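Explain this record to help learners:
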Amino acid sequence: MKVVEENKEIHLSIKDVIFASSDRRFYTSSIPLRIRASKGTDVHVAFQDKRSQSEKNFQKEAAVKIKLEVMDWKFIISGRADVIFEKQGKLIIEEIKSVTNLEKFDLSSRIAEEYRQQLLMYGHYYKQLGREIVCRLVLVDIYSEDTEIIEIEPQDLTNYIQQQCQVILTSWKQNLKQRDLLKKRAKTIQFPFSDHRPNQKEIIEKISEILSNQGRLMLLAPSGLGKTIGTLYPALKYSLRHNKRLFIVTSKTTQQNIYRETLQIFAKKKGQFSSIILTAKEKMCVNDAFICEKSFCPFIENYENAPLDEITSEVSRKQVVDARIIRKIAKKHTVCPFELSLDYSLECDVIVGDYNYVFHPFIKLKRYFDQPYDDMVLIVDEAHNLPSRAMTYYSPEITLKSITDTIESLRALNLPKKVERKGLDLYQKVNKYLLALIKEYPDIPNRKIVLTKFDKKFFRTAVKDSDRFVMWYVQAYIDRMGYQPGGKDRNLEFTMNLRNFYLILKESDLPEYSELLYLKEGKMKILCKSAAHKLEYQLQGFNSVIMQSATLFPMEYFQKMLGFPESAVPLQFNSPYAQQNRLYLLMPNISTKYEYRRDSYEPIAALICDSVALKYGNYLAFFPSFKYLKAVEQEIEKKSLSVELLVQDRNMSERKRREYLKKLQSPDKKYLLLGVHGGIFSEGVDFTGDMAIGAFIIGPGLPAYSLEQEMMKNYFDFKWQKGFEYAYRNPGITKVIQSAGRVFRTFTDRGFVILIGQRFITPFYKDILPQDWLIERPDDIIGRISSFWNDKSPKIITKSNETEEKYEKPNKKKSSKKKYPKTVDLFDLMEKL
């Protein structure tokens, strides 16, 4: 609906008129929405094609426009009739609707009434033109494709349309008045503390300016500046004042918890707003089993007829609503907590959730993003994580194992042989296609990855077969089990993945994509090398966007990778923590490059053990890979270590992670934690106080060399002439900064960070480290750490006062006995080979 206030005009659809006085809700279905929509479209097209062959005067999608005046306002109502044709002097109007069970479809239901009203609205238009009309409602079963045509008596809907338009106009005017009242709530949002942190006032002022100009901002703010409050405070105030909705998306649950706590601070200060923290459906489920089907889940079954207004009113008694509150109220009223959270979010000023809800092409919230959303303000927290996450959205894959597992799952269900055969034919066809591709490359050494092209025509046919099979499968499953398949059903998951694969494949000729065949793994994958173009498109629709992180280094790189316009305003700050509490050391006489790593294991282990022995406390060491970590771990175990050892496993569970963090909080014992760059301990965790007083950063954390990474490098060379920087260096340094940031989380934290590796002394790497890291390169690292703990202050050699020549030429006086020759980079070596 569009309101042109200066002309006193309201433009709306026929459905807007019909739904004006009804409670519209969003429902889940056992049939994936995209397949259901696709099948509905197929039903429409098939029936229209049938009519085009049998009727000479056939016309499809006939434009309908009804104009009238109500209370001095002009209403323009638009729609399209599915089918019209003339027969025996009468105009036949047909509205096609697909249903999931034609035999059980209730013609007295609310949805059936809505179907009739839509048809009669089309009939009203043609009747006003003086035509003699026949109205027919065409119901088609999406499973059996059986059709029933019901003739509906035409009606003069003049009074009905006027009444509905009056409801719409009155509601709009009331909402206008309500919005004016709600704007006053902005005055209740006050800065919650008596003082601002360093630079926090500047952050608030700059964001306020950006929001007033509907702009884009990139905020690089290290821990300690209070960027969460610094961005949330002006954004919340602006959103309330201008009737906007504030969306906040994060990459981790821990960050969502921080926003929940921050919103609660504003609520305690008498701020008037409503907010919700959205949680994934499976985590919200209160049923005995995670099966979203009415006959199996009473919470879904009851949702359609539950008094939603009363329930959401109860939810609204809390200003900051999270999963715990939603579950409690949902259980009380026996309604689905996930659906309740989504429906209640429509009434909220602030919505906090995962990146997926905004950026995932198949998961994003359609109720918000399938229509204009220029009334929304977006904050992206820890924005350095978004480019890599977005690339995974557009990198679908299909494996031989996934096909085999799905075949086994289908056979285990004992469905009717006809249905089972349809599914097996589909899966085996895809399996055969993948095996045939692999056989085309018998001479590839070590059965590596090859660049190929997938057959779009094959996958288009496969998806059509898959959609048809899903219809039969769901019906057969219901007949066999008595309920619909759940959200984790392997057959539905595979068919949806097949569809997603094809949708991405349709645009894979763009340079952002590569089609890869993994011979050893038996896998076909579409690799998205950059999702910047996708992010740019999604971000354009917002009123304003704030990207924030402590590690948006370098800003130009992230501006491009995030799809941000060049006009985006950069805002960067140094750490507010006292320099005398932060010791940054560099050990350049060890090479961490791949071909020289074996020689580095013992010296690194010795440095770690000697450093840890100087002061009893917790320490962290982050490595480029688990293999590197394990090798150094073996060397550490040969030495005397003053603290106990904790080691991150490759597939560590969340429970184990929490156990380790709990140990680090214990005052009784101290530990050395070995982890990997970019892992579960290197970001998104606050090691406050004595939880970590030192960190060892082994190497710049570059992504491992691979064909995928090299393709990204080539793409970035083509796109921005910065292949190695964007594919390897920048992601690696981001991990370094994140890892180092674990030590300094509050103003009282005191500790050291040691950068280990020759590459850290070169301008290529050191120039993109934070400017306020005053990095020293002493001859005696252990002595320097000892003096730091003893509060001695020798002359500090820093990046700012050390000459370029000194950085480029390592000091000849080494504390280590071993000397390492100058080496070529692994990646240069691979290219030469």
Notes: The mean pLDDT is 89. The longest strand covers residues 73-87. Residues 136 and 151 are 4 Å apart (CA to CA).
